[in-house]
Amino acid sequence: MKRYMFDSLLLSLTVALLGCGGDGDAPQAPVTITTSFEAINAPDAGGTYVINVSTTGSEWDAYANGDFFTITKQGTSSKSGSVTVTVPANALTETRSGSVVLMSGAARKTITVTQAAAEKPAYDAPDGYSLVWNDEFDHGTDLNADYWTHEVKNSGWVNHELQNYVNHITPGGSYVTELKDGKLRITCLKENGKIYSARVYAKAKEGWRYGYIEASIKLPKGKGTWPAFWMMPVNFQSWPADGEIDIMEEVGYHPNYVSSSLHANAHVHTNNTQVTHEMLCPGAEGEFHKYAILWTEHNITTYVDDKVQLSYDNRGLGHDDWPYDAPFYIIFNLAWGGDWGGAQGVDENALPVTMEVDYVRVFQKK
């Protein structure tokens, strides 16, 4: 009897021990997190993205690792839910990146969030200014007749210059202006003993009153050259009373030194009172550089590659000192010789020479 009771007790204990040591000691399966996005690649304009989340755990959570986007979570206390990622427009010209980190139990999952850089603006201008007119010279082979007019004048017309200005083509069929490779090319050449070149006006009948105006220009080389980017008044009556704005001039005998000047009754080169400034622009001959003017009712400032060249304030002295309150139009020309360009003679062996303009742009206050 005692032996039977002992065997029964031993069997019961064994069963109990086996019962206690079964499923309770089996290793737990790791928690897994599944998402509908493995990564988010947003454009510079931004966007909204919904990440569907499921977990084998009992609940989940998420946080944003980055300050350029926000997240909204739904269903975190259950096995499934969603994270809405809102990415605003990127105003920076650099790519930015961050991540959304998901958590469930000991499991972690990272969803990268990358946003493209904003495209650099096509045009660069002071704050508050917008593009109102431009010519990139990238259509056709001739200047747009709706924008441009050619001056036609014989040599000696102004400043004792030696060139004859013609409309587009010389009598012998050579081009003095042409569009090529997205550039305006103004060529000065010798043909049948005469010098020919071009002087062109942009919107000469209307012009612009105030604004930021810039052009990218490659200057020619050669003793005798006198290229210019300048402006004259639309309603011109007399010079210098109505004013002249020279954004950029250069003469070949003084290479790579570019000048800017203002002319009016109260300041004019004929009596050495002109407002002018010259600066060295290395590579101006043979390379493109940016020449610009910021013109307001209070001040005129010109620039070379964004560096101030000349600055002149409206001193409130009236029209003789400030005739720059009327519409002016843009001029590009390539002169040969003359009072300044030929002050140290000319070298006709340099001909033909070409001035190139990559673009011209006009911005005004919004």
Topology:
Blueprint: H1 2-20, E1 33-35, E2 39-42, E3 47-55, E4 61-65, E5 70-74, E6 80-87, E7 96-104, E8 107-115, E9 129-135, E10 148-150, E11 163-165, E12 177-180, E13 183-191, E14 194-197, E15 199-202, E16 211-218, E17 225-233, E18 244-249, E19 257-263, E20 275-280, E21 288-295, E22 299-304, E23 307-313, E24 328-336, H2 338-341, E25 353-365
Parallel strand pairs: 2-8, 11-14
Antiparallel strand pairs: 1-3, 3-6, 4-7, 5-6, 7-8, 9-25, 10-15, 12-13, 13-14, 13-25, 15-24, 16-21, 16-25, 17-18, 17-24, 18-19, 19-20, 21-22, 22-23
Shape designation: elongated
Average the pLDDT over all residues and give the rounded result. 92
Kindly report the CATH topology of the largest domain: Jelly Rolls
Radius of gyration: 37 Å
CATH class of the largest domain: Mainly Beta
The number of domains is 2
Give the fraction of residues assigned to helices. under 10%
CATH architecture descriptor name of the largest domain: Sandwich
Order of helices and strands: HEEEEEEEEEEEEEEEEEEEEEEEEHE
Number of strands: 25
Largest sheet: number of strands, sense, barrel closure? 10 strands, mixed
Structural class: mainly beta
Summarize the model shown:
With 366 residues, this protein is mostly beta strands.
Characterization of this structure:
The structure is a single chain. The protein has 366 residues and is mainly beta. The chain has two helices and 25 strands. It has helices spanning 2-20, 338-341; strands at residues 33-35, 39-42, 47-55, 61-65, 70-74, 80-87, 96-104, 107-115, 129-135, 148-150, 163-165, 177-180, 183-191, 194-197, 199-202, 211-218, 225-233, 244-249, 257-263, 275-280, 288-295, 299-304, 307-313, 328-336, 353-365. Strands 9, 11, 12, 13, 14, 16, 21, 22, 23 and 25 form a ten-stranded mixed β-sheet that branches. A seven-stranded antiparallel β-sheet has the order 10-15-24-17-18-19-20. Strands 1-3-6-5 form a four-stranded antiparallel β-sheet, with no helix packed on it. A hairpin with a 2-residue loop joins strand 13 and strand 14. The longest helix has 19 residues, at 2-20.
